[in-house]
Amino acid sequence: MERFRYIHLSQLYFKGMWIFALLLFALIPLQSNATSIVYKGIVLLTFGCFTILFVKTLHKFGSFIGIREMICMTLLIGVILTSFMLNDGAISFDTHIMGILGFIEMPLAIMLMDRVDYNARNTRFVLYINILIAIVFSALSVSGYAYSGILDSLYLGYSNPNTTAIYLMLNQAILIIFLPMLKNIILKCAVIGLCIYEEYLIYLTDSRTCLIVSIVIVIYYFLGRKIKIPKWLIGVSIFLPVAFLLIYSNMYANGKFMDLQILGKGFYSGREAFFLEQLARLSENYVFGDVRQHYFTNMHNGPLTIIASCGILGYILWFLFYFWTLRRYYDGARNQIQFIALVAILGVFIHSSSEAALIVGGAHYSIIVATFYWIFKGRR
Length: 380
Fold this sequence. Notes:
It is a single chain. The protein is mostly helical. It has helices spanning 2-27, 34-60, 67-86, 93-113, 120-141, 161-178, 185-204, 208-223, 232-253, 272-281, 291-294, 302-330, 336-351, 357-360, 363-377; strands at residues 261-262, 265-266. Helix 4 (93-113) runs parallel beside helix 15, helix 6 (161-178) packs antiparallel against helix 13 (336-351) and helix 9 (232-253) runs parallel beside helix 13 (336-351).
């Protein structure tokens, strides 16, 4: 009975967060006042469930996930607190505290989802709620919200086309992951239709990175049985955004490929001068970062955002948490569904080369990305 109560609390988190995500996708375009309440509910649900489970689990059953991951998370929080103490500046709840909570929320979500049973009832829940989310996106695409911003790209009523592309990419990835298990031919055709339409919508956002990641996931769905994802690719994918940042910035600084066009857009996105400026500033606080100044604000590159906020030390601990978690899950992966989820996870890291939201953002991102980890882990 005691163990059942712990699992039940994780189950509450799992379903509550997905319902909150659905509400946010519907409410944000409407600019409803209820949106801020939902955001606060997400933070409260995440940290409330984690705190209760953490205390009870340590008392009864040992740590979440693995001891190495728990040590990394504990030390990472310590580094963030050290960065606070070593730097000056005012502290605001809505900016500093919420920024830090948003960053911590993702690994906490992965820990909580590690406790959720992987069974037919829960997988159906994820599938059906993502079908509803896809229907919301489809409805917005034929409404006045479709092109609601200052650019000619697709917005769907959200803050910018890149954000819209991320939402579409994540939702499409979840639907593709569950395609192999669908037996009902009508439902399968409907889900395939939604995936194809979302691919078209991603194209309309003009987000090249999201388009590439979504195409890779689609290709792996068709060819996955013939392609074995090597274990070493986990570390390479997590580190790739660092290599991209350094190489891309260096090429711009040396005037390389200035006239190159990719998919009708210039090779350089306009962020390269910003990257160079921020890289130059890192030397001032490269060990612990300056969380008072940056507070995990999206700097359009995941590692750059993390290092600016909590230093090289924080980035190393963050890297090790995800590296060890994924390698442990990899050892138990057996089927195509699990490896499609791994492709989606690695796609999230690669995507962070040009956009940090999925790495440092919290709220509705956290449950979606954590669900990829849950699927990759599978039954144990």
